[in-house]
Amino acid sequence: MADFGPGVGDGGSVQSGPRASFGIRFVAALIDGILLGIIGGLLSLILGRTLGTVLQILLGLAYYSYLEGSPSGQTVGKRAMSIRVVDFSGGGAIGTTRGLIRYLGRIASAIPCLLGYFWMLWDKDKQTWHDKIATTVVVPTSAYPVAAWPG
User: Fold this and answer.
1) pTM of the model
2) Would you place residue 150 in the very low, low, confident or very high pLDDT band (cuts 50, 70, 90)?
């Protein structure tokens, strides 16, 4: 079993432990967005706008579902910023299904003027709406180390 860091699985320390800040999460999302945007733009140039757009959507679904659902809980951006997604209850990996649910929750977070993203600024658990939907939390790897990437 992978080591998820100090206190993980000891009855709730993940629920009250350290969290990734809004700024760090923003930079990680920016890195992921630029990466996916470049790849999506290239797909659109090569395959045409319609097919490129469809593949870009599927790429985003696969990217976030697989990487955030992996044991490391890290996309490229999250890895660069030393943060990860973990299960809110036990601190472990969330799996690809919950990774997909979390990705779809990002849409709900974005629809009302990004309110779901800003929610973490006043939420006691520093969760966005997509964190709440998927029962996840984003934590620093300094407190919850990653054994291997992507896991």
Assistant:
1) 0.88
2) confident
